Amino acid sequence: MAKEDPPAGTGAGPGNTTLSRGSYGETLRINEILRKETVGGILLLIVTVLALAWANSPVADSYFAIRDFEFGYEPWHLKLSVGEWAADGLLAIFFFLTGLELKREFIAGDLRRISRAIVPVAAAFGGVMVPAIFYVIVNLTSPETLRGWAIPTATDIAFALAVLAVISSHLPSALRIFLLTLAVMDDLIAIAIIAFFYSEDVELVYLLWMLLPLALFAFLAQKNPKFFGKRISAAWFILLPIGMVVWGLMHASGVHSTVAGVLLGFMIPVLRRKDGRAVTPRPNKPGLAEVFEHRFRPLSTGIAIPLFAFFSAGVVLGGVEGMIKAATDPVTIGIVAGLVLGKPIGIMATTWTLTKTTRANLDPNLKWVDILGVGVLAGVGFTVSLLVNDLSFAQGTEHNNHAKLGILAGSLISAIFATIILRIRNRHYRRIQEEEKVDSDEDGIPDVYEGR
Length: 452
Hints:
CATH architecture: Up-down Bundle
Radius of gyration: 22 Å
Distance between the termini: 35 Å
Largest sheet: 2 strands, parallel
Mean pLDDT: 81
Strand order of the largest sheet: 1-4
Structural class: mainly alpha
Shape: globular
Number of domains: 1
CATH class: Mainly Alpha
């Protein structure tokens, strides 16, 4: 007989259990972030459809004319097209929040403990390496396309959450946090890949000059209680111009300017109590990290990422003949294989190996099919994959267009497979969620989170 799912709430302690529940405060904070990202994911779906429709309409020329229109101050290396401003400028906001979120997780979040951080971090690396290997294997005999090896390595958390919203999944908090950590680590690894493998003709002088405003930004951010006094909410008026100088010098250096966003995010101080947990700011006295997140997350989710996606996702499909040609291109095949197969294999294999080698147990509320479902869902790649594509192949070229189709196709297939797996388990997930709401002693903390 098949084994029944264990009753919800029977997880072992976090010390010897893989993917056990975290603290209640951290769960609330992560759920709020995921709620905002879900809205952003739905917006991404809309702008992607609009971009595809416009790029394949009778007035397609106007779409590409807008995307390729250049403006800016050329002596400062800032005469860029609209599409380049979206990729180099607006995405820096997204990566700033990525750096800030990752720092908060490792400084004051549940991932400050190595025992909790090692699995999702290692799984993220597995989820990057295996898709890249799949792509390289497919393109091994095509040297001119090997440059795109990093395209299928990223997970788009907003799109993934939009899929969960559409299928009405009741994914437990432990799996949601696991998925978010995977996506954030993916983004950090991606920005490291961009910095080391996709930076050309680096101007060391500009890079060294960039360190001066970066150091000033870090100093003022770390000293903000004394420097800004009671008007901490006004800090961003001073720090933002300095951050823009850092971005400008990074762009002039030849290193992709989005790297500046991550570095600036790392400079923002994250406060924590003596027990290691994050300090919960009072509503009338937010910390600097909360101020920046409050100011920039809506800008990132509602404007920066959708605009980048709109100007990057537009690709001419070329009818049946064009689709067949794209389907036989090793670039397309490698990306689809990396997203659909490489992602879940890398995440699943790494998680299973770590669990077994450390003699830990998977939380009794979960099964390995749940990890597989999250791994498949992580194959929904979009924003960063499109960015790496534009760095790998020039816009408008055949390989660039085919890569976009591969990203869209691979993400769609991953979304469909993830829907099938997660919907099968949805009844069990609903039971876990109901258990996580029970508060018998009415102290404001659900029973399953007591003592965590």
